[in-house]
Write a structure and sequence with these properties.
single chain, about 350 residues, alpha+beta, 7-stranded antiparallel beta sheet, 16 strands, about 25% strand, disordered N terminus
Length: about 350
């Protein structure tokens, strides 16, 4: 009888999970092997709790086959932060997208992996495609995510947080180089060099293309690449023992070229916009006790502006096949005409 009661309670209550937002900014770690996706990066091993806030945003082209499009980060149980350009040129309905949490491999499944559909997409109202101004997007999930050791939220710095000394910074993602040399599709991470905006915007670097809403990081041989968009740039808060997400991966000139760092949207710059669009006050995070003040958050008003859904990028492989076929056709016609 006692066993039956316990089973009934478990069935009613379900497994025990923490509340999303009470713990955030877990340390990136658990990597061992080299890779060529996040350029100069290494594999993130499963079961370590590393990068617990990251998610894979996917399109379904021929169900049940899904295609990884971009990364994103969980900022509370209902919302994901990503880049606006990830949703440009979508050809399938938003209902056919999925967001996968808790996986380090794109093929990973099981009880530790959570899959959610997209209920609503909010693109920044002043987003400028191609120039990538205000390249920010929020995704509202169809159901809340249950947090646990491998699924946690990112810590976003408020306007009052001082981010002057950014030394231990990392990026992560499932992106690809133009020539893909590994088919394992394992989450990659890399330690990157933070580059202040004055240097990043100088004539020898990105020469006037950097604005107050940008953050730069990366160096020759190490940085983000295609497919890493929407993912996080995190830097250590030394006083409290956790990591701030200071950027959302946006764009770059090539991949990890010298004096061509990756460019991110500043989460601190868009802090008020993020919480305004969600229409809620974030939960104050629990961090490792240490000297100095613990970060706090301010209340946010109800959102007033939402953007219509935008399209999903066409798979790179299909585009490559198309251009190869077009090239062959042009060569055939040239031979016929001349």
């Amino acid at each position: 009888m006692i066993l039956l009661c316990i089973l009934i309670l478990l069935a009613l209550c379900g497994p025990a999970h923490g509340t999303c937002g009470q713990t955030c900014g877990l340390r990136p770690m658990g990597s061992t092997l080299s890779s060529t996706r996040v350029v100069g990066g290494s594999d993130v091993m499963p079961g370590t709790g590393a990068w617990a806030g990251i998610a894979s945003i996917r399109c379904y082209w021929n169900p049940p086959v899904s295609v990884h499009v971009c990364g994103g980060t969980l900022i509370n149980s209902h919302w994901l932060l990503s880049a606006a350009h990830c949703f440009v040129n979508r050809t399938n309905p938003l209902s056919e997208w999925a967001v996968v949490f808790g996986a380090t491999s794109l093929a990973q499944t099981g009880p530790d992996v959570e899959v959610r559909r997209i209920k609503r997409l909010i693109i920044h109202e002043e987003y400028v495609p191609h120039l990538e101004f205000n390249d920010m997007a929020l995704v509202e999930l169809d159901r809340p995510v249950r947090c646990r050791s491998n699924i946690q939220t990112a810590c976003l710095p408020g306007p009052s947080v001082k981010l002057s000394e950014m030394k231990n910074c990392y990026v992560a993602g499932w992106g690809d180089r133009i020539v893909k040399s590994s088919g394992r599709d394992i989450l990659q991470q890399a330690k990157v060099q933070y580059v202040n905006n004055q240097i990043c915007n100088s004539s020898e670097w990105l020469d006037g293309y950097i604005y107050d809403f940008n953050v730069c990081a990366g160096q020759g041989g190490i940085g983000t690449c295609q497919g890493d968009s929407g993912g996080p740039l995190v830097c250590e808060e030394k006083r409290a023992g956790f990591f701030w997400q200071i950027g959302v991966t946006s764009w770059g000139i090539g991949c990890a070229r010298p004096k061509r760092p990756s460019v991110f949207m500043s989460t601190q710059y868009y802090y008020n916009w993020i919480w305004k669009m969600m229409g809620r006050k974030p939960v104050t995070p629990t961090v490792t006790p240490a000297p100095g003040p613990v970060p706090t958050y301010t209340a946010a008003p109800q959102p007033t502006v939402t953007q219509p859904t935008q399209p999903c990028p066409f798979p790179r492989e299909k585009l490559k096949q198309f251009f190869i076929m077009l090239k062959d056709l042009l060569q055939y016609l040239k031979g016929k005409l001349f």
